[in-house]
Design brief:
Layout (H helix, E strand, L loop, with lengths): L5 H8 L2 H13 L2 E2 H5 L6 H13 L3 E6 L2 E6 L1 H30 L9
Helix pairs in contact: 2-4
Amino acid sequence: MTQIALPTIFGALSDPTRLAIVERLLSEGERSAGEIAQPFAMSKPAISKHLRVLEDAGLIERRVDRQWRVCRVRPEAIKVVDEWMERYRAFWEGSFDRLDKLLAEPDRETDHG
């Protein structure tokens, strides 16, 4: 099983094609490599390289289903990203709440004189 490391995950997702592949697998579920390649204007070897990067990052796993290689997102990888983001979500939500309160206060005249 591939070790899941945040820098590797974010590096893999920094490519628009790989991000689109993961988004598609998340929304549509398991797909064969051929199905994954369909919407992209690139060769099958190029798609295969993208899939290898995603697999090496721990984001997807591939299995053989008869003559097809089927890909799916590894939930463990999404959980790792979600846990990392949760730490920062609380900070930013608190910051935005304070900003909302500040902006909601009636304008105060300031005495500059």
